[in-house]
Structures are given as C-alpha cells and as structure tokens.
Amino acid sequence: MITLIKNATIIDANSPYHNQKKDILISEGKLEKIADSIPKKDHYKVLALENLHISCGWFDTSVSFGEPGFEERETIKNGLNVAAKSGFTAVAINANTHPVIDSKSAVEFLINKSTGFATKLYPIGALTKESKGIDMAELYDMRQSGAIAFADYNTPIVNDNLLKVTLQYAQNFDGLILSFPQNNDITLSSELSKNKIGKAE
Fold first, then answer.
1. What is the pLDDT of residues 73-96, one digit of tens each?
2. Helix (H), strand (E) at residue 195
3. In principle, which of 105, 107, 170, 172 could form an S-S bond with 145, CB 3.0–4.6 Å?
4. H or E element at residue 142
C-alpha cells in the first residue's frame, strides 16, 4: 500500500522539517519522500485533513489494561490495538492486575502476549510482593525477564526502611524504582479535618 499524506505539519524537533507543512509519501510502511508537493496517483491512498499534524510515535509511561485477571476492563490485544491507532508506538503497563505482576513468570506472560503488535509493551513490575508494601518482590528476576521499572501502582511505600532496601538493591542492576508520592498520615489527617468541618457546619 502507498499512502500520500497531504499538507501535514511535521512535529519533530530533530527533523529539518520541524513545524513545516509538507506532503509525505509512505510505501509499504516506509517513509519514501517528503516534499512541498507530491502529485497524486490513482493507486495512492490519500490522507488530506484540515489542520493535520504528524509526529513520531508516542510513549505512554503509565497504562492499566487489566489482563490477567480483569479482562473485562481491557485485554492486552485490544489495548495494544487501540494504542497503535491512537499514535502510540510503546506503552508501559502497570502491575495492577490479578495476580499482580510481581514475578519473572508474570512479566514473561505479558511479553509473550504482546508479541507481534505494532505497539510495543513494556512491563512495570510490582515493587513489593502482591503490591502489599511488606516484602520486596523479585526485582532482579523481573528485570532479567523484561521489566523496565518497579512500582506498586498508586500505593505509597510507608515503610521507609523497605524503600531504602529496594533502592539499594536496584542499584546493583541499574533498576528504576517508581514511588507513589503520598503520605497516608497526612491524607488521613486531611480527611478527618474535612469531616469535622462538615459536621460543625
């Protein structure tokens, strides 16, 4: 298939065509030509829209699909197809599934299920076992299997020593630790204050 994109504004700070309106010719998925004007041919699929912009593929750093365990929310197959159609060439998947992605086999399951799609899937492994914030998960094994980072999704690590140990351990293999920035004591105090004010009124 040959696709001709007409009069599109190119958004790419590393390109000499950045912020310029150009015609773009794509043949069999490969960029063939960029020019001010490219003539149409009968066998071309022409894409011409008002205020059309084109950019490099996007990367979403925090995606929650559901599979395994919550397939009714979103499957890996459908999620990756939607991501591709939305312009994302890669997504990082959170560990908030059932079971939680906290082991080598769980990471390998995600990678195997995502093979062959236009959008690449990068697993984020859980920082602690079952994301309960008690024991450190199998960080090194998950990293070896393809996890790019570790986090307990939307859950702060309240044990300061545990967070320190995970940071020190991850340094040995250049692992990336993501910590949800919330202090539960402050949050609870704030909620209690709101309730007291509400009752007083």
1. 999 999 999 999 999 999 999 999
2. helix 184-200
3. 107
4. helix 139-145
User: What kind and span of H or E run contains 62?
Assistant: strand 58-63
How many whole angstroms from its chain centre is CA 20? 29
The neighbour count for residue 151, using CB atoms within 10 Å, is 23
SS3 81: helix
Nearest-angstrom CA–CA distance, 103 and 109: 10
pLDDT in tens, 2-45: 999 999 999 999 999 999 999 999 998 889 999 999 999 999 99
Tokens representing 19 are 């912020």
- At residue 85, φ and ψ (nearest 5 deg) are -70, -15
Give CA angle at 20 (15, 23), nearest 5°. Answer: 95
3-class DSSP assignment, residue 46: strand
The amino acid occupying position 119 is T
Structural domains of the chain, ranges and CATH numbers in brackets: 2-55 (2.30.40.10), 58-182 (3.20.20.140)
